[in-house]
Structures are given as C-alpha cells and as structure tokens.
C-alpha cells in the first residue's frame, strides 16, 4: 500500500462515523467533524481536500486533489461519483444582502446562513474547478463541465456547463453496462 494514504488501522483512529473496504484517504486531507462523515467502499480522496460537516460518501467515489466539501447542511455523494480537482461543494452560504454580518467568527444571532442539502445522484461527475451551490440535486448520470457554476438542480443524464451551468446535450448511459462488468470482476452483488 502507498504510504501517502492512511492504512486501515489509521483510518479507524480518524474518528469517522463509518467507512467501508478499500478506502484510500490521503494523509494530506483535512477532516473537520469526522464523526459526521460516512464513507462507503472503494473510495479514494486525494491530497489537499477539505471535508467539513455532515457528509455521506457512498461507494466507488473519487474525490480529486484540492476539492472542498462544506457539509453544514449535508452533502450526499451516491455511488460512482467523480469530483475533479478543485471542485467546491457548499451546503450553506452567508447572506450577501448586507443585512447581516458574516463568517465563522461572528455569533449566530448576527448572521443569516442560508442553504440546504446537496445531493449528487449515482454516476454523476463534476469537472475541474466547478462550484456547486447549496440546496440542490444533481441528477443521476449528470456530467458538469470544468469551470462551471451549479446554482440550481440539474436533470438526470445530461451534460451541463458554463456560468451558470446550462444543458448542453444528453449523456450516454453506456457506462451502466461497464458497472455490471466491474461488479462481476470484483465479485460484488
């Protein structure tokens, strides 16, 4: 095993809510509130990622280097998800209206943090440098191009891109056949 990733014994000492088999987490990842983070099997989280808050990562997920998941209101990554480098997912945001103060050093009664859970459905992928805003669902099989801003829910099996992300075209479902072959190879149900 590559020594830049935590071994199974080391993973058990991180204080995660739960984790499955074949989990690779870089020793250069920052975990805040690890007791709120669940990780399935066949998951890899690369260098310099930050995971904070309530986060549920299912199986066969890759989170590339420099990704940030702010899970104050919850983030769910279902099976077969890929987050390319420098993706940021927010489940909460400060109020930018000027009516409130902002930031973690200000007592709650002077702020207005808004947001909601972010759900990435199975087989979705987010391109490098993209930002996902709070309170939305990225539909099953959806691909988001690099440097996109996702500020609303996206329909299943589409390819989206831009600022804000807009529908470009339908996405092939051929990868579903590959999933079956993978599960057969790994002798999984």
Could you describe the 3D structure shown?
It is a single chain. The longest helix is centred in the last third of the chain and has 11 residues, at 175-185. The chain is globular, with a radius of gyration of 17 Å. It has helices spanning 8-12, 175-185; strands at residues 18-19, 23-25, 30-32, 37-39, 43-45, 50-57, 61-63, 68-77, 81-83, 88-90, 92-93, 114-115, 118-120, 125-126, 131-132, 136-138, 143-144, 149-150, 158-161, 166-170. The chain contains two helices and 20 strands. It starts with 7 loop residues before the first helix and ends with a helix. It has a single domain (8-185), classed as UDP N-Acetylglucosamine Acyltransferase, domain 1 (3 Solenoid). Strands 1, 3, 4, 6, 8, 10, 13, 15, 16 and 18 form a ten-stranded parallel beta sheet that branches. Strands 2-5-7-9-14-17-19-20 form an eight-stranded mixed beta sheet, with no helix packed on it. The chain has a two-stranded antiparallel ribbon with strand order 11-12. The chain is mostly beta strands.
Tell me the series of helices and strands, N- to C-terminal: HEEEEEEEEEEEEEEEEEEEEH
* Named CATH architecture: 3 Solenoid
Helical content band: under 10%
- N-C termini distance: 26 Å
What is the CATH domain class? Mainly Beta
Structural class: mainly beta
Reported for the largest beta sheet, the result is: 10 strands, parallel
How many distinct folded domains? Answer: 1
